[in-house]
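Record pair follows.
FIRST:
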Amino acid sequence: MTTCEFTLPVLEAACWFEEDPGIQGLAPGGFPALATGRPALAFVEAIQRRRLSRLARGVFHCAEQVAPPGDVRVVFASRHGESERTLSILRDLAAGTDVSPTLFSMSVHNAVPGLLSILRGNHAGGTALAAGAESLGYGLLAALAALRADPAAPVLLLFGEDRLPELWAPFAPEEVPHALALLLGAGGRELGMTWDPEGRGPEPAEVQSRHFLAALAGGGPGVWAGPTAAWDWRLA
């Protein structure tokens, strides 16, 4: 397979970390806009906020910062999704007890973007995907493909990861809970992206999203190699 070059036109960008990520160039009021701590989510009714996981709160906050009103196509990417809820369901199944329908509906991989679309009244199509350690990279490719299919309509890329439950934590790099949202559309600032399958290697200890955000914030090139490819992002 050959190396592929892409250009992502980024109109708006926002990210959230539970704590300061220490990424060069990433700051409140910058690009992308950084938020830390517990998101307020004033646009979500209190009864709904209480049901949201930490992952959903982070994703919702970022989406609210960049998404235009009305219908917008959404691509949601996450490696693990609602891992706490998934583990709870597995424990119920192992114990032979009934699974809560509400817990199940909030655990499926498209639950976060689906609930967000309901709250925002967004009737446009959406995609939810997981691609292991490279979920963000392939989410970006899916969003770019959607934009190229209809360049006149922006695409909202959402990404989020939570801290894994203790039982599963040894099987993946440790992550600070974080999320990001990008609005892709014509006229946005250009972020170059290279996908090189020849550069693939063992999964590194640092997650892909940190390198992507460093490049987007202008803190230097973002180079990261994973199990299927090497990825490189840089501002044009």
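SECOND:
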Amino acid sequence: MKYETVIGLEVHVQLDTKTKAFCGCSTDFGGQPNTRTCPVCLGFPGSLPVMNKTAFAYAIKVALALNCKVQEYTKFDRKNYFYPDLPKAYQISQYDLPLSRDGFLDIHMDDGPKRIGIRRVHMEEDAGKLIHAEDVSLVDFNRTGIPLLEIVSEPDISSVQEAYEYLVELKSLLEYLDVSDCDMEKGSLRCDANVSLRQEGLKTLGVKVELKNMNSFKGVREALSFEIERQGNLLDVGKPIVQETRLWDTGKLQTFSMRTKEEAQDYRYFPEPDLPPFIISAREIEEAKAAIPELPRQKLVRFMRDYGLTQRDVKILIASREDADYAEECFKAYARPDVKPIANWLIGPLLSEANTRNGGLRVLKVSKDDLLELVSFVEKGQISYLSAKSVLTEMIDTRKAPGAIIKEKNLAQVSDSESLNAIADDVIKENLKSVNDYKQGKAGAIMFLVGQVMKKSQGKANPKAVQEILKRRLSDA
């Protein structure tokens, strides 16, 4: 039997504010356990929460960027449940009157664009963190009360790849808005998934299973793939799917049952009595709109239009706002109609160096002027592309200018015919088989001979000049 996959994602984003959602404690990551707490975030009797104005403004900005309708009237609620990392035994969240509803995020698949509905974007506070040792479980409340956004998608996602693209697009948008560092290793971005299968062609939804503990995009991909296969196997043999919460085991690469799924009534939601309802004015919404920068999708369209680049190249260049800004600085400084040569360097050697150093293009600290100077040396035939890549590495490591490195390491390309003719003669004598192959019509054989000349010249020979000399030599012979 064939099944359709139905996926909805719940993404929790820690907002990058200096203080917590309802108190003045620091949100800095790390620190000694339980040192960034106070009576408010620990829920001591008599303590009262006060809304973080910056967190509220960030939340409105994200909602608008996701095309949501921001509610004029919103309130906070208590979500009641007991867990060791929840000191108050309730979480300040939002239930029936969330900050915003009914938005969307467009993703682009190989077969075209797809719109994923956003059911709601609402605010809440984070819980603490449990650390499980061999014989004990410890709790750190430093994270308790950090402002969170929960972004809930509609069940519009139909495949693992669509879920992955949605998360990539959402993460990029949040980084452009500069509201979160989105660092999954620190827990700044966390994802839960609701997965169900239904018989192909049916409109009714199957029994959903919630997946938790996915702390990387790779983990989300693997967990969804496993769960879809698990549910399909159960349905194939006529066994029912149990509505439950399952955890992803990164070691065994499988999900396992955590608990049966709670419903809303299990949390006994009621209005938070210590926080008043909030009325969001049209002025606040307009201010939030004005603070929204050019977003990734808009930048992609503009880069393709203004710089004549392919969608594939642009998607790489605009992966982060800092990288996109750096790329545009380089394009403008290049000041030529065709920026493809610079784009090739950015998505080739520079991105390779950035990945090696676990950062973005900006982290390399290569100024646009130094990069353009290096590219100019290659375009003028003064150094080879291979040598230029080694110069780039040296530039990053030492902060020296490219011209100084080329001079210091004697990397200037050899183009004078006398020197190259001598090396070419030696290569022809030493590689008679390739010479005969070329004369018999195997055009590719000459590239082997070019490679041998490059090798003998220690990479300093100008490959174009070498190819011309070899062709002339072999036609005369």
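COMMENT: The first helix runs from residue 53 to 65.
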